[in-house]
């Protein structure tokens, strides 16, 4: 998710929904009107590994709020769209939620790549959009109607590198990152700066693209440089098979991942090959 894992997602979603819904509900006609909130998350495709749990958290929160009488007497109505983790679909979902469904505010989309494309639509329409899993740099600079709670890669990854180096006794790393995605490129930039600041030698830097399934060429190159660990800026759809294929060619060193690897789904996808992440 590039996603910051929240240990109590329903509670977090409930607090977010109450706070923002209370603010936007000031403009509703009367207390009997439903507070219509748009939720655009990836419910299919590779990013569904993150999006489904986010959607579930908001649904649980809305159900709990409504069972308690709603917000100032108004019930929350979620209008949920599957943006598939794709920029074009996120744009279409935002347009539908804003112009057709008349949502008072939006949550989503799941990925930073999609947020960079879709959030400007909400900003131009003066509709508040709140991202719960957008950690790439620059998201909130889109405008004053764009918010997020996720800690950025630039804040998280320097600490990740420092702790991993100390615990696993890492002195040199190879780097792998997706070069066609706002989030994974932002993660790479943050990793690169952290490695430079901490004077950690990089043995090689290799790239891949969304949708790639065979990473053995890149992994063969990383293996030849004999790193102590592999720094990985990826989403789960590519990150999990990268770990599996690395183990298959004998690369059993640790992986240092960013927020995109921060999901329990990694154990479903990579199973025991995720040991050392």
Describe the structure in your own words:
It is a single chain. By secondary structure, this protein is an alpha/beta fold. It folds into 2 domains: 9-148, Response regulator (Rossmann fold, 3-Layer(aba) Sandwich), CATH 3.40.50; 153-274, Rossmann fold, CATH 3.40.50.2300. Helices cover 44% and strands 16% of the residues. It has helices at residues 9-24, 48-67, 87-100, 112-124, 153-168, 182-197, 216-224, 236-248, 265-270, and strands at 35-41, 76-82, 105-107, 128-131, 146-148, 173-178, 202-208, 229-233, 255-257. A 5-stranded parallel β-sheet has the order 2-1-3-4-5, sandwiched between helices. Strands 7-6-8-9 form a 4-stranded parallel β-sheet, with helices on both faces. α6 (182-197) links the parallel β6 and β7 (202-208). The chain is elongated, with a radius of gyration of 20 Å.
How many helices in DSSP terms? Answer: 9
Helix proportion: 40-55%
The run of helices and strands is HEHEHEHEEHEHEHEHEH
Strand share of the residues? 15-25%
The span between the termini is 16 Å
CATH fourth-tier homologous superfamily of the largest domain:
Response regulator
Radius of gyration over alpha carbons? Answer: 20 Å
Low-pLDDT segments = 1-10, 24-29
Globally, the shape reads elongated
Query: What name does the CATH topology of the largest domain carry?
Result: Rossmann fold
Instruction: Please name the CATH architecture of the largest domain.
Output: 3-Layer(aba) Sandwich
Tally of DSSP β-strands: 9
Largest sheet, spatial ordering of strands: 2-1-3-4-5
By CATH reckoning, the class of the largest domain would read Alpha Beta
């Amino acid at each position: 998710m590039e996603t910051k894992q929240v240990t109590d997602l329903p509670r977090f979603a409930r607090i977010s929904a109450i706070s923002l819904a209370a603010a936007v509900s000031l403009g509703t006609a009367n207390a009997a009107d439903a507070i219509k909130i748009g939720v655009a998350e990836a419910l299919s495709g590779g990013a569904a590994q993150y999006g489904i749990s986010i959607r579930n958290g908001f649904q649980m929160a809305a159900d709990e709020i409504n069972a308690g009488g709603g917000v100032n007497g108004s019930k929350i109505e979620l209008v949920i769209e599957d943006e598939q983790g794709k920029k074009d679909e996120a744009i279409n979902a935002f347009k539908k939620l804003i112009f057709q469904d008349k949502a008072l505010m939006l949550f989503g989309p799941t990925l930073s790549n999609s947020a960079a494309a879709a959030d400007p639509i909400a900003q131009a329409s003066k509709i508040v959009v709140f991202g719960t899993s957008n950690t790439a740099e620059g998201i909130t600079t889109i405008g004053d109607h764009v918010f997020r709670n996720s800690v950025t890669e630039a804040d998280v990854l320097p600490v990740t590198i420092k702790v991993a180096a100390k615990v696993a006794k890492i002195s040199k790393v190879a780097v792998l990152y997706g070069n066609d995605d706002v989030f994974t490129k932002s993660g790479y930039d943050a990793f690169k700066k952290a490695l430079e600041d901490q004077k950690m030698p990089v043995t090689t830097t290799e790239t891949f693209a969304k949708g790639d399934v065979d990473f053995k060429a890149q992994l063969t190159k990383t293996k030849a440089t004999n790193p102590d660990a592999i720094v990985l800026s990826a989403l789960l759809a590519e990150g999990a098979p990268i770990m599996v294929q690395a183990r298959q060619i004998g690369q059993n060193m640790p992986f240092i991942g960013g927020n995109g690897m921060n999901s329990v789904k990694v154990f479903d996808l990579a199973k025991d090959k995720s040991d050392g992440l």
